[in-house]
Design a protein that fits this description.
The protein is an all-beta fold. Helix content is 0%, strand content 55%. A hairpin with a 2-residue loop joins strand 4 and strand 5.
């Protein structure tokens, strides 16, 4: 018989996005922005579907390239049991 490990985590993952903020405007040199924040150390974080780097303290960062006009940023944290927390906000970029 095989042994299996089952993770049961009833709490949703912690997710705090520190930068950028809702409605923030970027211009010219700020086409690439750093999306940063914190989560639980063992979580996976996705920014617009791309995996961010999460360090041993739970701090994450991802360099996101903005398009001209309004940009929707979706940040999602997932724990080992598959629970997710998501934050969505808009920022603007104008050349």
């Amino acid at each position: 018989s095989s042994d299996y490990t089952v993770n049961y985590i009833s709490d949703k993952p912690k997710l705090d996005v520190s930068s950028p903020t809702e409605g923030q405007n970027f211009t010219k040199a700020d086409k690439n922005i750093n999306v940063t924040g914190t989560t639980d150390p063992d979580n996976t974080v996705l920014v617009n579907g791309f995996r961010a780097i999460v360090d041993s303290d739970g701090k994450f960062s991802y360099i996101l390239q903005l398009n001209d006009g309004d940009n929707t940023v979706i940040v999602q944290a997932q724990n080992s049991a598959g629970g997710t927390t998501q934050k969505e906000f808009k920022v603007s970029y104008h050349q």
